Structure formats: C-alpha cells, structure tokens
Amino acid sequence: MKDIINLINTNNSFALFCHISPDADALGSMNALNLALKKMHKKVYIYCDGKVPRNISFLKVNLEKNTSLIENIDVCIMLDCNSMDRLGCYAKYYEKAKIKAIIDHHQKDNYKFDVEYVDSSSPSTADILCELFKTMKVKINALIALNLYAGLSSDTGCFVHPNTNIYSHIHSSELIEQGFNLENANYNMFKFKPRNYLRFYKTALRNTKQFLRGKLYITTFNLRAYRRFSKICDESFSFQFLDGIDGNEIRARITEKESGVFTLSFRSNKFANVCLVAEKFGGGGHIRASGATYSGSLKEVVPLIIDACREELGKAK
Ligand SMILES: [Mn+2]
User: Fold this and answer.
1) Which pLDDT score, from 0 to 100, does residue 317 have?
2) How close is the Cα of 138 to the center of ligand 1, in Å?
3) pTM, rounded to two decimals
4) Distance between CA 58 and CA 159 in Å, rounded?
5) Ligand 1: centre distance to CA 292 (Å)
6) Which of 11, 45, 145, 233 would be 64's cystine partner, CB 3.0–4.6 Å?
7) Cβ distance 193 to 237 under 8 Å?
C-alpha cells in the first residue's frame, strides 16, 4: 500500500483501466479511484473495453474514448484484473505506459508491474480501495461511497458468497454512512431484470443440460441466441436462475460471441475450484467464479468442459 500511496502523491496524471465485460467491482472501483484522485486535483482519464451494464448505470461512470490522451500520462493503473489480455482493446496503450501499476484482488499473474497492490484474500477491489482511502485520509463523498459499495456488495453476491468477511460488512457500513441511496443501489444490482427477461429465461432453460448426475449444468448460447439476447439482457442473468439447486456444484455457460469463438464462464457452489477449470482453457479468475475463451466448435468444447469439471469434482471426498 505504501508504494501506491507514494505513486499517487508523486504523480499528477493517471489513466485507469479495468477488465473487459466490466462488472460493478471493475467499474465501481475504477470510478471511485477516479473521483478520489480528482478530489486531489489530479488529471485522470478512465478506460474500459465494454459497455456499462444498464443495471449499474447509477454509478455515473463516464468512460473516456480518446486514447491520444494516454500519451502524456504519468501513470497507468489497472484495476480488478491482472493481465494485459483482460484490458481488451486498451492493452496496447497500457503496455506503453511510463509507469505501470495494478490494484487488484485476483490471484497474482506472472507479469511484473512497476507498482503492485494486490491482495488476493480481499473479497473485492473496492475493499482494497476502502483501506487505501482510509490510510490516505481521503474524504469519501456519497458518490465515491456508492461506487465502492457497488463493487464490494456485487463481488460478494450481496454478502452471501464465501468470500464475504467481517471487513465487507465493516466497509459497507462505513460507506452507507455517507448517505447514498442504498435501496436504489440494491434494487438495481440484485433485483432488476430487463423487460424481456422471460424470453431470455425460456431460451436459457431450454439450452441448459445436466451432466455428471446433476453436479454440472451447462447452459449454451449459440451465436444466434447471443445476438438476440445481448440487446435485451446482460449475460450474468443466465447464472442466477440456476443458483443454489440442491446437488448441483458447477454451472458452466458457453456463449458464442463470434462465429467459432466462445466465452466460457464457470460458477461453483460450495467446494469446486472453478479457477482451475478455467485455467485448463487458458483463462482464470476466482475459486467460485472464473472464465476463459475457447476457439473451435461447440461439439469439441462441451466434452472438454465435462472432463475438466469431472476432474475438479473428483478431488472432493
Ligand atoms: Mn472484483
């Protein structure tokens, strides 16, 4: 933390980056740091390869598109991710940075950054920033608090995932004290469903199959289904309806985003380490939530997923 504080105190301009297909922790953390640095009269631009999901538009994230601004920046910081490929189209700009820094809570990658503030035991990047701001005595206003709350509550699944700890609750209570609209934030993040949700739900249900005697569910969206639903519905919804079914441990989602290119996402309930499953496909993430990309065909990838999950499930007694 000392190094990050020193970095902030000794530089004046910052470009912040978070991961592709951003979630509330990626965008909320990045925006909270953006607002805090601006309060310290720093020049800050924020970049993300992806749209702000509709249900977190209340975070008021204003993404910068002009990449020529990055050229004269002192420091580039990536948040809530640990590798270049997670930055999507902005990786090449980050790579050219004078000083490369990272603030993150994922398992550390091999890449060497100039300044690193990584705590993989932390439930969210937002929690890490809560500690940083406290130490730096940054006065948090309601909008900064809202962005941090969104990050820490979403990465803990509204305080139910096993990563939830006493600090998630302590930080959250300190943030709520700043007086943002808590009811609105929780409604949008944890209850909101898009208008055409039922159509999406029916298709998702039809495209879900059970394997390994129900321990594994795989939901598939081919290119046609993806194109139809990406307009109406954030894909994260496709996991929610399968949450917590007795006897199930792993849920996998295969989404064909381009012809022959599949995004693989994994979630586990209680014991399976789906980060190891994703790593088999060159991806990564957390023990309970992970992802990867696969190029090939659906016919090939389904048995590979089943094998990888069988091996992971076999480790449990
Ligand atoms: Mn996160």
Assistant:
1) 57
2) 22
3) 0.85
4) 20
5) 16
6) 45
7) yes
Q: How far is the CA of 29 from the centre of ligand 1 (A)?
A: 9
pLDDT value at 265 more than 60: yes
What is the rounded average pLDDT for all residues in the chain?
Answer: 93
CA 213 to ligand 1 center in whole angstroms: 32
225 and 271: one domain? yes
- What's 211's domain CATH number? 3.10.310.30
| Ligand 1 center–CA 155 separation, angstroms | 6
Same domain? 272 vs 291: yes
104 CA distance to ligand 1 centroid (A)? Answer: 7
Tokens 């190029």 sit on residue? 295
Residue 164 token pair: 């939830």
Structural domain containing residue 216: 197-314
Q: How far apart are CA 253 and CA 219, in angstroms?
A: 5
Alpha-carbon distance values, 198 to 193, 241, 272 (Å)? 9, 11, 30
| pLDDT greater at residue 233 or residue 10 | 10
Strands 289-295 and 261-268: antiparallel
Do the strands 43-47 and 208-211 form a parallel or antiparallel pair, or are they unpaired?
Answer: unpaired
Kindly give the distance from the C-alpha atom of residue 122 to the centroid of ligand 1, in angstroms, as a whole number. 9
DSSP secondary structure code for residue 40 in this structure? T
